[in-house]
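Quick log. Single chain, no ligands specified.
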Amino acid sequence: MKVLGIDPGSRKVGYALLEMQKGEITHINSGVLNVANENSFLIRIKVIHQFFKTFVANNNPDEIAIESLIYVKDPTALIKLAQARGAIISAFVSEYENKIFEYTPNTIKMFTTGYGHAKKISIERYLNIKLGAIKYFSHDQSDACAVSLCHLSHVINGEKRDEKIKESEVMNSSFFGGNSGSRRSKSSIADSLKHLNLSVK
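-> predicted structure:
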């Protein structure tokens, strides 16, 4: 089984292709798609979409795992991250409709290090133990390896599941770090969406 792990972003996107055969997991390919030098957000989205459309077509992973939305203080950054994830998923959803899985950052850390709040360096140390010495160009790359490894761990343990992000979870207080913070964040998001004629309830 080959699994493509993705650490999404609107400027840098980590990707990692791991393969499991007879219980042994090997690293096939990983890297970072860096579009930070492109000023136009729409062009970045286009490049990200086309990259993953081509990568998936050329490598034919059996399943795809992607990190779910994370807590972002800046509402505009949150919106761009969500749009980037949408561009990524839309690149292969028609062929992988029932083969795309999402995992929260804490779940990924738990299944790779045994601790849900592990530091980046701890994740990379564990990856080196499981996958061998790999030169990571950034945390985006190592995070993508961790996403793929997390999914394969679920497969090995027979606990494979799809952790969908619900709209209510994006807007609830815990996501924004507390009730009072939730009210301020919702207001900020509403301001950011005015030009789109959208509202946050």
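The radius of gyration is 17 Å.
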